[in-house]
Structure formats: C-alpha cells, structure tokens
User: Fold this.
Amino acid sequence: MNNLKVIILAAGQGERLRPLTKNLPKCMVNLFGKSILERQIDIFRNLGIDDISVVTGYCNDKINLDKIQKFENKNFMTTNMVESLFTAKEKFNDSVIVSYGDIIFESNIIQSLIDSRHDISVVIDKNWQDLWNVRFENPLDDAESLVLDDNEFILKLGQKVENINNIQGQFIGLMKFQNDGIKNTINFYKKMKSISNLSTNPLNPNLPFEKSYMTDFLQGLINNNEKLKAIIIKNGWLEVDSLKDYNLYQKMHLEKILNKLISLEDTP
Assistant:
C-alpha cells in the first residue's frame, strides 16, 4: 500500500462549464461546498494514499492545495488526457491510480480499485443509464461503446454507438496500473508516439497523436494484447462536464434526490 500513488488529470479548460471556469480550472469548481479536486483528495487520503500528483494546465496557478505535487502540461491547449498522463511520467511506477479531474465518486469505488490485483484495472459503471438519463435527452448522443468478455475483461470501448445493446457499461475516468501493466503501458506509449511521428496516429487516424483520447489509448492497449480488467460499479459517481450537469446536480441535491445516483456521505 505504501507504493500506491495517484495521478489526477486536471489540465483541460472546461469550456462547457463556463462561466464557472472563466478564471478557474474545472477541478476547482465548488460543488456541494467543496471543490471537485479537494473532494477527490480527501477520499484518497482517507484511504491511506498520500502520494498525490495533479497534472495542471489551464489556470495552473489556481491549483495550490497542500501536500500535492503538480506537473504542468504546458501544451494543454493542443493535447488531451494521454499526454497529460505522461507529463507526470516520473510518477508512473509501482502502483498508480489515474483519475480524471472532473468526477466525483464514493470512496468504495476507490477501495475496489485498491483491492484489484490485476495489472490494469478500469472502473466501469453498469448502471450508467441512470446518470445518462437525467443528463441527456438522448443518452446515446454521449454514450460510448463498451463490450466485456465473459470474465469481465474489456474487449472494446470508446466508440460512438447507434444501438444501446453495444453498451455493457461506461468508463468513468478511473484506472489503476501496476506490475507489468506499468512497464507495458509505458513501452506502448513510446511505440505509438514514435510511429505517429513517422506516419498517421495508430491510436486514432482522425487525430494527431497528442490529441488521442484516453479511450483510444486503452483500446490500443487491448489491441496490443493487454488485459484490462473491468472493475464493475453500479452508480456512485458523477461527471461534471457541463454547466447543465452542474445545475442539475445542485437541483437534485436541494431536492434530496441526488442519492439515487451518489451518496455524498461516502465522499467526505
């Protein structure tokens, strides 16, 4: 447990949350009395994880919490999550939980990641429609494909879908890498980057390598014969992606119906 660390990816501009993010990173937006980032950090610390790094970018100076290490992705305007992760590559060793900076989650979800023995573990919400149905008129507009095998290893993820039957869950933005999963992921990243420098991006030919989505990268690992274990959850988290999300969650909280999606008592 001593070697377990966390990297939080919080470099993006959060344009869909404006005006809340006009002069503030997305992760520092206050929701239910505390910033998203502080809520995450409190959970990690309560579970005994003190080695916490945050990859910053937009409004880097506004992220100034105690006892965290910051890595600045200076190219945050032209890059995406994968490049942000490898901005903190010196921390990518031993056992690492990687979290998006715009999600709120219950501590039991992190505990299930901590408990996983697999080289690469990825949190998947089987009850994703509960959250998507309140956020979107048509959940398929935003949902992505996710297909699992019989042993709950991920086969496919991250593609647009026209049929809800191709969705066995949603990736929530939480992962853990350890053992051979660390070394293999680093080697895969280097290999994909060098290939893309010579030709098109092998992860996603429609994008420059630097703008590859995390789901592109995870699918690439799967295609490279890595085993990505799905850590199955049923609700217990929120994605704060837009002003509509923010206002919706505030309203549900006031109306005392937010606990249909998440128990805030389990997010200190």
Remarks:
- The chain has a mean pLDDT of 92.
